[in-house]
Amino acid sequence: MRPNNNSSKLALSPLTNEVNQMQSNPQSGSRAAQHASPNRQKPQREFEHVRESMHLAISMNKTEVIDSVLDDFSEGYFSLSYESRWRLLLGLAKEYDLNRTQVRELIKQYLGGEEAQLSGPEEEGLLASFYRIERNLRHALKPKYEALFERLNMHSGGLKFLSILRADILSILAEENIASLRALDSDLKEKLGTWLSPAALELHQITWDDPASLLEKIVAYEAVHPISNLIDLKRRLGVGRRCFGYLHPAIPGEPLIFIEVALLKNVAQTIQEVLWDDPPIPEREATCALFYSISSTQPGLAGINLGKFLIKRVITLVKRDMPHVSTFATLSPIPGYIQWLLSKLASQSKIAEDDMSQSSADRSGSTFQENLLEPEEEKAMMDISEEFAAGKNGMEVMLNLLTSMNQEWSKSAELLSVLRTPLLRLCARYLLQEKKRGKALDSVANFHLQNGAMVERINWMADKSEKGLHQSAGIMVNYVYRLENIEEYAVSYFSSGHIQASDEIRHYVEPMKKPEATTD
Amino acid sequence: MRPNNNSSKLALSPLTNEVNQMQSNPQSGSRAAQHASPNRQKPQREFEHVRESMHLAISMNKTEVIDSVLDDFSEGYFSLSYESRWRLLLGLAKEYDLNRTQVRELIKQYLGGEEAQLSGPEEEGLLASFYRIERNLRHALKPKYEALFERLNMHSGGLKFLSILRADILSILAEENIASLRALDSDLKEKLGTWLSPAALELHQITWDDPASLLEKIVAYEAVHPISNLIDLKRRLGVGRRCFGYLHPAIPGEPLIFIEVALLKNVAQTIQEVLWDDPPIPEREATCALFYSISSTQPGLAGINLGKFLIKRVITLVKRDMPHVSTFATLSPIPGYIQWLLSKLASQSKIAEDDMSQSSADRSGSTFQENLLEPEEEKAMMDISEEFAAGKNGMEVMLNLLTSMNQEWSKSAELLSVLRTPLLRLCARYLLQEKKRGKALDSVANFHLQNGAMVERINWMADKSEKGLHQSAGIMVNYVYRLENIEEYAVSYFSSGHIQASDEIRHYVEPMKKPEATTD
């Protein structure tokens, strides 16, 4: 019943997944499994019980021992259905926010105290009492549910439970935008951000010697290139490969984010080279460390940038062990490309069509009109339209080709040769120019750019898997990290949204400027 | 120049100490040492530089890369004299608290928004905007210096630096009570409390195989029974001994608190048995785990109860490895006993004297008057007064004996036999009945009682070291932890201040009630 926890590509049933998540607390695990049995009785009474333990967890005097209450609450929570969780969380957001009567009373005191403080001389006694009022007001403005979050943070296993709570909250908010719950979410997100400080995260090299319970998590959460079996996993942890994860001491045995690295002679152009280069090259011959997969494991930590220091720390570590590795690059998916392109093609071909149907005097009047295709691309597209896909203009032909059954276009040499140029060119445009709130529209691009990378190269037919064709017409991108420029690039991306790119890729979108001969 | 950092009993020069504390950041360590050289030039310019970097660290846009600014600030801070740090911290407290104009403006919006929200129907859009104002007000009420604390918390080495900052703040506040600085301290303390969540602390068994840099810290910070040399240290980590520390991942290589354990046949009555039982008994014969020393290493974490779960976790660990160990007890100092007793004796003997000098009709009129001695003790004291120490009454004789040069009383068999009964009896009273805000007056007693221990036994001449005689007339106390009662005792101590004690020790203060024969 926890829909937002299915980021894993391997089929783990929701229940298995849930039990996994509770392994840090084996006692509660067994009890929850019991509760979760389909023959559960009296769900309403159970709901009331959980609500009561939640209330105790918030309102008990803080000097009392509340460990057992918190255990009780989290165990009970796991036994609830998705609908009951929804009710419970909504109740938490609405009934445990502020005591607004108290806030108003303190505001009155505050305004009075401020006057006294501003008019009178700096008297320590007066100041102390003013600071006290200010502090009381600050505390009164803290929603009561913060007590629950703070107590769980101090409680063994509580941080993991908070991340599960937040995953549920996000999944509710995705269905319905509820102001009070959104306020609660932004509060919880802020707290989780400081509690999961990067300074407390431990970089751990994951190897075949690690416990199966940890490796199982890697298999379950690898979101980019699914791990097909144990042999595949062993290869990814073996010679010529590295895997690093960030662990937090309060969430043991489960990396919050992990990164897979291949040691290669050159920056790979296709994912096949990386996943199936058997046998790998001897490590002493490697000059490139290629980051080919980064996955975060906790949907409840969405929006908290845990990866910020990960790449920098991994680079430092690899460089220390292997000084002969001089290039640090990624081979990354472009998850939003085709979705963006299809919507662009649909709207523009529609505008072009409308335009054509008008009298010649009105033509090209739309300010939004733009032919996404260059003249020679338009011509090539129309040339093949009769045989392969109908369309009144090049863009519509391209749209129809790309949305045809089973990615038929990718199996025809002729279609590939016609589509290659516009697909690559528009991909460069998508990566370098399409923005949202001043940041790269593509989420993976945004991740690497804010970490200080540059866009180096796009690669044709780099990922021929169904997912790769579907997301990005099989195109993948290399981002490159230059240690000496990481800070500078990150700052300029943050402050002005400037995207660093190689001349080669810039050439796609600025046809006037030829790439220099010396570009490597 | 960091006076509050001398908790260590071994002579580390302040400079060495400071450099030690910076070892997590070797780069800054060397630069700081350089700055700290006595030939430093232009301290004023340096002060301005540090203040500037502090300002940047607080006010830079949060998306910019501030790591180098934070490094700059902490390096600069270490180069400052104690006086400059005082000025800087005072400036931080006064100039970086709130923007009160903004607070007032938001209060106005808040009161308006609240009215609209309370009168109108539950409309999500209106609610959302109200929550936003509420959140803005909450944020505006956060002092600006919180940004510095939060950024340091996220920064590598920052948590350690914050604990040094707070140690300096506490030492300033001990000299002068400044309202704004006290407000800053309470804010910082609250933050440190949540960032150093017990759930993130790692229990580590410290052994002779640990790095010298860590063992060095144990030697430096052992505050109860100083470690005299490497052989002494090796013994405390060897057969029949255990040492456990709490480490936080953001403060690597340095336990925040550590506890030393001796495995014994019986609960030790003197510290000499523990420190010099050479050779120790075979571990399989042990039935008692004795906690004989608990030291915290960070003066800047004062008031944050890091020990809360330590003892419970250590007991669980020892029990798992050695099921035959059934008794968990301490042999603890009573640091405040003699100080309390001397002040009591001085005031009461003064009152008694004044009373004697009044006419007989007025005698015993003072409601505060109390003879601390029983009649037979009073008599014994007066009997020896001629030979050993003058005094108009028993209390004054006792006071003079206890304050005589070089603890002469402890070297005379006759004096020991006279002092023994009243010293033990009054010690039991001090431990069981003397309170401050409902908690045990003695700090070590308070620590163990809030952890769920009971007062089991007091031991005569248990620590004959100069410090032991000085603090508690050589008396030490055994607190006992009974796993099955820990929770219950902690709750009852917290809620009502009730102190659990054995019949044996209660007998000292309730002479009517005889101890039962079966008490062990």
Automatic annotation (TrEMBL), chains A, B:
| Residues covered by the Malonyl-CoA decarboxylase N-terminal domain | 132-195
Pfam families for this protein: MCD (PF05292), MCD_N (PF17408)
User: What are the start and end residues of every segment in region (Disordered)?
Assistant: 1-49
User: Which InterPro entries is this protein grouped with?
Assistant: Malonyl_CoA_deC, Malonyl_CoA_deC_C, Malonyl_CoA_deC_C_sf, MCD_N, MCD_N_sf
* Composition bias, Polar residues: 1-41
Q: Where is the Malonyl-CoA decarboxylase C-terminal domain?
A: 200-481
Q: What is this protein called?
A: Malonyl-CoA decarboxylase
What is the species of this protein?
Xanthoceras sorbifolium
List the taxonomic lineage. Answer: Eukaryota, Viridiplantae, Streptophyta, Embryophyta, Tracheophyta
